[in-house]
Amino acid sequence: xxxxxxxxxxxxxxxxxxxxxxxxxxxxLEIIWTVIPAIVLTVLILRGLIVWGNATSRSEDPNRLIIExxxxxxxxxARFAGNDKTLxxxxxxxxxxxxxxxxxxKETLEEQVELIQQDIVMMELERDTIFPN
Length: 133
Prior knowledge:
This protein is mainly alpha-helical and 133 residues long. Helices cover 49% and strands 9% of the residues. A hairpin with a 2-residue loop joins strand 1 (67-72) and strand 2 (75-80). The longest helix is centred in the N-terminal third of the chain and has 30 residues, at 27-56.
């Protein structure tokens, strides 16, 4: 495209002897350069939707690999399903520095309860300093 741009910029550069042609209106030309891009874009969008549907649909292959990704800027974590083809329980509210995937287990629930209890103690201390009895 750049070669064509340079060629036409050189070919149609300013020339005192050349006079511009005034072409007022042409319905046929207007329809052509409206319909052709509309058709091309429609075909591209429909093909893209088909590809997107194939890429995001669930596979029915019994040997499929189940992976769940947790993505943040410059930080990717993945968890894989076991032999039973199921992922363990997880919740975004359980995500912290120690548990980047938000896995739910007895240990992580106990850690979460402990963190909440620490937050309650800190809030009570702050309340008592701001509003003494």
